[in-house]
Design a protein that fits this description.
Blueprint: E1 15-21, E2 26-32, E3 37-45, E4 53-56, E5 62-63, H1 70-78, E6 86-93, E7 104-105, H2 108-116, H3 125-138, E8 144-148, H4 158-161, H5 167-173, H6 182-196, E9 204-210, E10 214-220, E11 223-227, H7 250-258, H8 262-271, H9 274-279, H10 285-293, H11 297-317, E12 326-330, H12 331-336, H13 338-346, H14 357-361, E13 380-382, H15 387-399
Parallel strand pairs: 1-6, 6-8, 9-12, 12-13
Antiparallel strand pairs: 1-2, 2-3, 3-4, 4-5, 7-8, 9-10, 10-11
Length: 401
């Protein structure tokens, strides 16, 4: 039975349905792109488990069938969507490989090419394809548009995306650094330009998207010139459950010591490492900050490693820029964890970073996002991301071409 508040159909004017399928969750939103108005939104969590659930518009969580998958959750959502109210459906797709340098109208060939990229993002692309298949079946007359996390980084210079491995691996297998969170990095860069009152094309920025997945990006003139994630979302910063950078020989060493196979070790690096692996407590930064306050040494260690590795990466990204006009924090941790921003900026003293504690504790709301002092040589902002709006606008743009 549908609980109170979930039963009404999601009636809306010409909107875009945005679908973002994760490995065990999915988010959706109905957005009017020109006004950015969100008429309805929801989240399905713990898909594939007995605790699978769906929440729409903040109402009480609705239990789904045990072990319900993305298709089941989407069909429940689709029951509340009027097809004649849709301009397009926009799908977040994590990995576009070498083939996709921008968003694209979905057809059978595009689906096949996205599937061919699945080995590069095995936790994400198959889920993204489930969302595409379900929406195409439900709304066959509505244009479907795939928006790729990797597209924003596609024009990075070769010196930033090439690995120092045999070149034929790049030619044969597409082995290179691709980068992710592109919609988020692009969006907050545009917002930073607006806040600074300067054209984006004139700015040099570093953006840090910090959530359960984390990446940072150097942006020059609105273009990504370097980023921390690589071939897959495992490379780079310490994350909620991902290790980030490790010695490339780690797999062989651990396999020899433990008897684990390569697949098992990769699974551990993706799902049982990062903040969770270091702390032994949680992958949630809020829980770790609370644990540190209680004197939990491993929670403190996890936070220290997270912030130190982040600061190192931000300094390294400066190599791709002539200057840093602003540093932007975004994502769940970046937007809400004031102690993490303060600790990271304290390790950027070489750049002249000075945190304004009051502004930082207020997440920059009092000064249009600014969290550094007026005398700080490094200007830092907190800017909430809006990946769903980017996807909605891309869906309209490419569905009308």
């Amino acid at each position: 039975m549908v609980r109170t508040g979930l039963g009404q159909r999601l009636m809306t004017a010409r909107n875009v349905l945005v679908i973002n399928c994760g490995s065990s969750s999915l988010k959706f939103a109905l957005i009017e792109p020109s006004s950015a108005r969100v008429s309805h939104h929801g989240l399905a969590e713990r898909l594939g488990t007995p605790e699978a659930s769906l929440t729409i518009d903040g109402s009480a969580s609705e239990a789904l069938d045990a072990n319900a998958d993305h298709g089941v959750a989407l069909n429940r959502i689709f029951e509340r969507v009027e097809s004649d109210a849709l301009t397009a459906v926009g799908h977040r797709v994590v990995h576009g490989g070498e083939r996709f340098s921008e968003s694209v109208l979905v057809n059978d060939e595009v689906v096949q090419r996205i599937e061919a990229c699945s080995p590069l993002a095995p936790l994400h692309n198959p889920a993204n394809l489930q969302g595409i298949a379900a929406a195409r079946a439900r709304f066959p007359e509505v244009p479907q548009v795939a928006v790729f996390d990797t597209a924003f980084h596609h024009r990075m210079p070769a010196k930033a995306y090439q690995y120092a491995v045999p070149y034929e691996w790049y030619e044969r297998y597409g082995l290179r650094r691709y980068g992710f969170h592109g919609t988020s990095h692009g969006y907050v860069a545009e917002r930073a330009a607006a806040l600074l009152g300067r054209p984006l094309g004139e700015l040099m920025l570093i953006t840090a998207h910090l959530g359960n997945g984390c990446s940072a990006c150097a942006i020059s003139g609105g273009q990504s010139v370097d980023t921390t994630m690589g071939l897959t979302p495992l490379e780079g910063l310490v994350m909620g459950t991902r290790s980030g950078d490790v010695d490339p020989n780690l797999h062989q060493f651990v396999a020899g010591q433990s008897g684990l196979g390569l697949t098992q070790i990769s699974e551990i690096l993706n799902k049982k490492s990062g903040l969770l692996g270091l702390s032994g407590e949680s992958n949630d930064m809020r829980a770790l900050l609370e644990a540190r306050a209680r004197g939990n040494a491993r929670a403190a260690l996890a936070i220290d490693v997270f912030c130190y590795r982040l600061a190192k990466a931000l300094l390294a990204l400066g190599a791709g820029l002539e200057r840093i006009d602003a540093l932007v924090f975004t994502g769940g941790i970046g937007e809400h964890a004031a102690p993490i921003r303060a600790q990271t900026l304290a390790q950027l003293r070489i750049l002249g970073a000075e945190v304004d504690s009051a502004l930082n504790d207020d997440h920059g709301r009092a000064e249009n996002g600014r969290i550094t002092t007026t005398s700080s040589r490094l200007l830092a902002f907190v800017i909430p991301t809006n990946e769903e709006l980017v996807i909605a606008r891309e869906a309209v743009r490419f569905s009308s071409e």
